[in-house]
User: Fold these one by one.
Assistant:
Number 1:
Amino acid sequence: MPAIVLLGAQWGDEGKGKVTDLLGERVDYVVRYSGGNNAGHTVITPDGQKYALHLMPSGALSPDAMIVIGNGVVVDPKVLLAEIDGLAERGVDVSRLRISGDAHLIMPHHRALDRVIERYLGSSRIGTTGRGIGPAYGDKVARIGIRLQDLLDPGILRKKLELALREKNQILFKVYNRKAIDLEATVEEYLEYAERLKPYIAETRAMLWDALDRGETVLLEGAQATMLDMDHGTYPFVTSSNPTAGGACVGAGIPPTAINKVIAVSKAYTTRVGAGPFPTELFDANGDHLRKIGAEYGTTTGRERRCGWFDAVVARYACRLNGVTDLVITKLDVLTGLPKVPICVGYEINGVRVDDMPMSQTDFHHAKPVFEELDGWWEDITKARTLDDLPENARRYIARVEELCNTRVSVVGVGPGREENVHLHPLLP
């Protein structure tokens, strides 16, 4: 079988980890292709165990799938090793992990710069996690980045780090009055990481090409989501990589002709973490309800997520941009008990109704949602497994989402557990 892309259709936290876990036993490879440990996937196994994954692909919990961290990911080796150790302690087989030698490393100066720059921006801050993701990608683009393969050559590692610190230490010390990064201590620290990571480093592109040639299934797992894409999201309030479907090709080395299915995950409402425009954001009791019932707190940061009604303009944009073939709607159960459930079907900008994403950042900041209200439902839907099990008003809600996005809804999540889903169409044959 060819490759499948799984991505988020909103601002992240849509439940992609659950969907990856749902598919994990039926795919041969699960590949993480973008982002770093600024992302978080929560997976709950059938026996109720909860796993919070940050760098490891969600397929790590599948017993047989190979798990791959692609070249498009930036890796903090300390975080990755802690995650590997944590999974191993809980009986998860981590020997199946392979990491691209071309993946870039997050270094101490990246974390230091991320934190100090964010503080310096004050009220204009982006809302980063402070984990060095943006600065690491910045060095990658500037061609002064350090890659995992450099850990295997101490001379190259020292030379590249020395070159980088000539500039970074000047900025930290002279501009921000912060302590400079020690070259020798950093080299020693990262060479220790090298000893443990060496067995996992591989030429992952060729590995995936060979798998596709054998007819095996490769699942490409995105972190963050469409509206956080560097090029296509709500810039500058975005991540530093491309979590969209096009980014899967670049971040894993998969040719676009190999991809025949794109699965997008969206909550039945909308959330985002950090700063940036959010047309349907709620500041009332409804927003508090979504946050409380949906347990809307960041997997990685623990920050409260901003909550709002489902935005069909954003979802439709994501479906068109990514060529989505199947839409998965999660957390429908969170809407239970609301007398009315609004859906944003368009925006009003300067008195003019628009139905598509505005071109400019200014217009999007000033967009006022145009809502269509649907009747809610009171029945417990967590035991629903077929469409007929859902209350009529819940079925109407899903049908309207499908119509507005012009994309079929294949799965509806009705609870956090792996089995708590309504399947409308098979995601895999």
Number 2:
Amino acid sequence: MTQDITGMAAVANIGASPSEIFAALCAGQESRKPLKAFDPDKYRAAYAYEIDDRPEGGGDIPRRATRWLTRVVREAVADAGLGEDLSQVPVLVGTTMREQRSLELWWRDDADVALEDLHFGTALKAAFGASTTYTFANACSATLYALGMATDMIELGMADTVVVAGTDAATESGFGTLDRVQNDIPDALRPFDATHKGMLMGEGAAAVVVQRAGTGSRPVHARVRGVGMNCDAHHATAPDPDGITRAVLDAYRRAGVRAQDIDLVMLHGSGTPLNDATESSVLRRIFDGAGPGPRMTAIKAMTGHTLGGSGLLSLVMAVLAMKEGAVPPVLGLADPIPEAAGLGLVQGPPVSGDLAIAQIDAFGFGGINAVAIVEAAR
């Protein structure tokens, strides 16, 4: 069973809408900037992929993740031709940090943050009357987990329309933890390149409206064919190739596709040596003997790692890639790692092609894996 994607919205460091973000990805312009949210003198890493919406004088403000969330939900439901009354529409939110940055500002600077402000459901109810909201804190796979639940809800007859969204703002505790635990400190996020050193944080939000096939009032952007997921709990941080393989094959089974049917892969591509090598090795095995293989790209090279919302942001970009018949490049990819040999990683200018089916990868700490298969609306 497939579900229709009838509304989409996104905001990231490189654009305030899906079309702006996709155009920036295709242009391949460097987007990292010196760290602004926190005192860079405290950390080894000096760069991040932040949204430039802080006060001119510097410093930070609370509830940025919530503001982005309500914005993309509002824009996605408008794109789908729905009103803003979501009292009968479930809203599923994926995130890694929730409003942890607001809590940090309350603790450190006595920012005006009430306990209820830390829950996205509060803002969603105030803005849209949403009475059924769920938050998934499933690390980097959170929004694809939420998408999987949305498709289940529709298939089970629990809803005809579900809004799936994700949001994350950079937190100092998260940034500082990465700064301590990464062996090398990158000055840019460079997925699958031999110079990759690790992950840098990004910020952003994305939302899609998923509806039972044929029930929407607007043209369909794309169709969700299936979502596979698991939690292999292999290691706290190291990805397990077997767990990832099972998630990919489960997605294929649910979607009714084979490896040779995939035209595009939106890679997780976190820029960490272990993730890049593991993801590359898994995909080499899966696509071995599957013809020329799909084109592959990794948008974190320009957006940074947008954490819980990263899977959904990649999905929205996959939909636009299929619509435009163009795959943006992996920024900065000059010397692919040996494990990626033979994969269709896009380097240099965007690559044109007929793209009908896309695979979106999202892998989180603790072996929280999710893979979505999306089909172009033709």
Number 3:
Amino acid sequence: MSTTTASELYPEVKAFLEEGTLKGVVGGKEVESAGGETFVTSDPGSGKQLAEVFSFQPGDVEMAVDVADAAFRKTGWPQLPQNERSALLHRLADAVEKHKPMIAQLEALDAGKIEAQAQGDVQNFVDTMRYFADLAQHVQRRSVLAVPNHEAWTVRQPYGACGFIFPWNFPFLLIGWGIAPALAAGNTVVIKPAEDTPMSAIYLARLAKEVGIPDGVINVVPGYGSVAGAALSGNPKLKRMSFTGSPEVGRLVAESCGANLVPVKLELGGKGAAVVFSDVDVPDTAQKLVNAITFHTGQVCCDATRWLIDENIYDHFVSECVDRLKKVQVGYQLNDKSQMGPVVNAKQHQRVLSYLEKGQAEGAECVLEGGAAEVPGYEGYYVKPALMAGSLDNVAAREEIFGPVAYLAPFKTEEQAIQMTNSTDYGLANSVWTSDLSRASRVAEAMCAGNSWINAHNVFAHGVPYAGINKSGMGGGVLSVETLFDYWRSLSVVRPL
């Protein structure tokens, strides 16, 4: 099906949008906010309303946590044999895959994603759910300890009700990254989706009901971050908490969890560097970094937003990037010809434009102007790709912009490149580009971050830990066996002989 206009929606999508006010899902039931409060989610490509959604208040969130806690204690979910629990998670993955076109179109409408990219996100959810469902069946949860004069062992047990707050840039994909290991380990979950992008989470909870996951194991509480999110992160009945979003909000979540001694995982922002040495294939590397910075309109926390280029190829590399960025087709996200859609909302639109202004005011060179983009027929939040250059002390080089903007600077030596890479408070992901694999490994290991990639950027393979350090987060990563262990508590059992 070719989706070129908003009128060519799948029938299932139209029916979902025409239901009326969308409800949260708690205990397997669709639930309104107790006081009837609502908010609106809009299409960032057109600026038009998509749906009205019930906005959960603190009391509503408390009720959802109580339900998740009760489900953990009473439904038998944590006591299920691992193969039976994994089978249910595979059924959920199968149901999502069956509805992938519909979920992807909902996601594209809600988040402003190019529809093909949204389909990739949905498939990633499916793959993540299957990965952890299978992994949990092969991990030894009981370990015998060799202790003189004692019979001793440890056993891993699920925690209980776990809270999750997800952002608007990868709503469905990140739900998979978050809840798949928690569910596979036998926990129950309460999901607070971003107010800009609540629809796919609500639909997922409905599918969970259909495939037979016990009521209360997966709950969705839509609402504003300052209200529903704050109530969730501050709930003392949670046993674990996970937040993905900005460092500023992450600090508030950490404070709330700290007050209740609830362990928290934070996956926050980034200001990643791509270090490009002179021995690369310049056109090929330029295209790959252009693809990275324009993917989902640059709204990617681990993106390469600082391009550090060997001075010997700097002018050539910049010229290649400018030529390619000028050809990027900015357009409505359901148009097959669009290569880059809108940013998510008016606030984010203004944020990107303001950083272009602030960066130039502090002396940055405007290599490619960027700015607001016009898409005929659509009153959405569109921006053009932009390139800036100059001192790394510039505000546009220091702070996360979250748009299709890269900041360029030349380097002379390998040592200088490493120093420039590490001159940031963030520590999420960087990449090194060179045909010398010895140098690639050496530089990658010297980068101060949770992740270093070689001759690629934005690489997420199941089985490889992904996490941030410093201002980019704490509390462990995702996509690996360590993540599964995060959702089991360890119990020691000892009998003196």
Number 4:
Amino acid sequence: MRIAHVITRMIVGGAQENTLYNCQDLIRDFGDDVLLITGPSPGREGTLLDRTEHQVPVALAPHLVRNIYPWDDLRGYYEIKKILRDFRPDVVHTHSAKGGMLGRIAATSLRVPAVIHTVHGAPFHPYQSAAARNFFIACERYAAKRCHKMICVADAMTDLMVDAKVAPREKFVTIYSGMEVEPFLESGQWRDEMRQKLGYSDEHVVIGKIARLFHLKGHEYVLAAARRVIDAVPNVRFLWIGDGLLHDKYVEEINAAGLTDYFQLVGLVPPTEIPRYCGAMDILVHASLREGLARALPQALLSGKPAVSFDVDGAREVVVTDETGELIPPKDVDRLADALIRLASDAALRQRLGEEGRRRAAQVFPHRHMTAEIRKTYEQVLADKP
């Protein structure tokens, strides 16, 4: 099978890791001929293609960029179309808003037999202006008519898209994002080494957050809750993993709040190192305001760490209060602080929730299982073609 994946950029992020695993598995497990089409990945987020021995053929579309620039978008469309015409795929699988829009239009114009799109996270959300939200919904409705099937990384994404009348429910299928689960299951072996490296002693309770330092990722809510948490549990420490354009702003706010001794920002970490950092944590906090299903949540659970998360999108499908962690209403800083204090104060509770989270996540998130399900979707669409 000849399969082209199209994604706007290959920064260090969940959707990008998902896509790269999918490409690698298709080549290794099924012997497929795979091409990854992507735009440039500038900025502080880093790029997966520089950091991994990915062994996936890549074609660069120089004008495929994240922001909307009509002239560049038109050029990006023709770049994608030329690459697809030369590659002659049986399947085009698109990801992200811009890559999804341009890729689907190009694939349809070339009469590609199977066109699939994955919704990693909806491009429309409640924190946009009404005009912007309506524009992105209209774009998604248009693009949805130019593919045969849509994969969502959580049932919540399907509900969101159906409620917005992007496409009928029968056009969607849920396939959870996959990852390399073994390093997370074994992350405890690095705990002592990593905590020593990071300067934590046995008495410290480390609350980790894995996310780009970017808008809507919710770092400000963790920072707002931190003073109460520290006053109640003075041995708490906060470990932030990730980089982005808000880095300097958050550093200034941490310093201004007098919390420098309690926060450590380690910057961008290669994906292969994330299990080691999870091993050093005791709790994961996830305060994003919009997310399909954040990879950090199953990663923490696989590592045996309970998660405290805002109740957005797919979070409730892995974080269950008093079973694997605690769900909090979005932006509720008081409830966030209460949950972190409760877990930071009770090692036995952390262990119980962490063990249950590990048991559940280990059954669902292996990336080769994800790829097998995705390939079944390709086969079904191709089999339904006249």
